[in-house]
Amino acid sequence: MEQEQEKTINLLIIEADAKEAARIEALLAEKASVNIKVDHADSFSQASLKLSQCSVDIVLLDLMLPDSELLNTYSIVQFLIPEKPIVILSKAEDDDFVAQTAVSMGAQDCLAKGTFDGHSLLRSLLYAIERNRLRMDMLKIQYEHGHSLELKSLERLSGSSRSAITSQMLGKSSLRESSVETFNNFVTKYCEILDAAVEQRIYKTENQIQDDLLSLSEQLGFLKSGPRDVVEIHSESLKLKLNEVNMAKAQLYLEEGRFIVLELMGNLVTYYLNYFIVFRKN
């Protein structure tokens, strides 16, 4: 328990009013029982920079900033720190609807400015951190369970009799079995496509994902690869990517991966249909 009290809590106050931020810092300074390191950002742009460069344990967020406001502010901050707790700061005369909506979207608490003392502020921050820890533990369990089920399902599919029969019809063993180096090269290319898809979703960029998938399907078709190969490449790529990222980003990889593997499968089917049409004509 003593170790928990000695641990420093890194708090970022995102508040346009410098006097209000200073008042909050002074209230927390009165509480010697907990070591809190306070940082302050007076705009959304400054907050974004600090969140990307500094370690933050919890955020006190004013929804009304000069360069962003209301729920848009909360949504973006939550996206930037999906695993950290956020406590909303609101004016006592503000409509409670916006603040309560932010709480329903995941904020841990809502405090009206000028209505709290050091004790109630510290209690809100500590409770928010603990509630968020429990929330993340539950999300981790759900994520690992869902992730495990998805990978097991893919492994069953790759080892299914239907996939094995397809490989036999094409007259070859799986790509992983016949050439580890070639298989790993496909995994590397597939990982790059997954990265591009997630980047496109987050930053709204335009990447040539469809072209890359078409090229990949043609290379697989040339090697007489089947559904089992596609599933094994997809499964191995997901394992690699999910070990590199946090849970929030891992969920994006899982979601984008489902679309990518289906499109790659469809492209490979089209390749073989075109191949057999040409073969029969000749």
Describe the structure.
The strands form 2 sheets. The chain has a 5-stranded parallel β-sheet, with helices on both faces. Strands 4-5 form a two-stranded antiparallel ribbon. It starts with a helix and ends with a helix. The protein has helices at 2-6, 18-29, 44-53, 70-80, 96-104, 118-158, 161-169, 175-178, 180-203, 209-222, 227-242, 247-281, and strands spanning 9-14, 36-41, 58-62, 64-65, 68-69, 86-90, 109-112. It is an alpha/beta fold. It is elongated.
Average pLDDT metric: 83
Structural class: alpha/beta
Low-confidence stretches at least 5 residues in length (pLDDT < 50)? 1-5, 161-171
What's the total count of β strands? 7
How many helical elements? 12
The top-level CATH class of the largest domain is Alpha Beta
Jot down its keywords.
282 residues; alpha/beta; Rossmann fold; Topoisomerase I, Chain A, domain 4; 5-stranded parallel sheet; 12 helices; disordered N terminus
Brief overview:
This protein is α/β, with parallel strands linked by helices.
What is the topological layout?
Elements: H1 2-6, E1 9-14, H2 18-29, E2 36-41, H3 44-53, E3 58-62, E4 64-65, E5 68-69, H4 70-80, E6 86-90, H5 96-104, E7 109-112, H6 118-158, H7 161-169, H8 175-178, H9 180-203, H10 209-222, H11 227-242, H12 247-281
Parallel strand pairs: 1-2, 1-3, 3-6, 6-7
Antiparallel strand pairs: 4-5
